[in-house]
# Entry
Amino acid sequence: MKIMMICAGLVLMIAFTLIGTSDMAQAEEILGTGTGSLLGGDLTDPENDGAPDADEGYNAIFTANEEPGFGGGEFSFNVFDNRLGPGNDKWCCGRGGGIPDEGLHITAEFEEAYALTHFTVSSANDVPARDPTKWEVQGSNDGEEFTTIYSHDGGSFWNARLQVVRFDAGEDFDVQTAGYRFFRHVTFDTASNPAGAYFQIGEIEYFGDSNFTAVDPKAKITTTWGSIKNTR
# Structure
């Protein structure tokens, strides 16, 4: 009887450990819904003065392997326009034929390298089946060879439309000790891929430290580019 009780206790301990590990792996933070929930002042537009229609006022050069440009038909650069909403406030929806093996990717290139401290990714306004289910954030210093910083594979992590979700170094991905001049978001799959309009995303914000020091990404520090509206 004692042996059975000991075994049962060990099983419970293992179960609680697994549950706790699972909870830790899903530490991303929901900030809210709509444009007002964006942090703002990220690396691509620290002054929040970008003019998307003219592609001016940004601190980064944007490139994409599909639908490059702002506006004009839900093009890819709309993920950096500091707005959440329908139409030209999002990137949608795929040209048909399914997502290529290399994924659908958009890249922000900076003049200097940053160690990524945190970032946000936001859902678009409709059709949850278009949400990325397998995707990565990657870094590079030459724009050719990319290193995976964060990866997600397991369904959509959003539970609402126009929802802003934050990911932090030290909680959701490793604290970065190396800096990158290029940050790239890559979508490899969605629930509706490859049929019809199979993809959409609302907004991406990157925040980083140019000194490459291990810092608390939620703290207000002078060495981190990007002003944080909401400290949590």
Observations:
- Residues 103 and 188 are 5 Å apart (CA to CA).
- The longest strand covers residues 104-122.
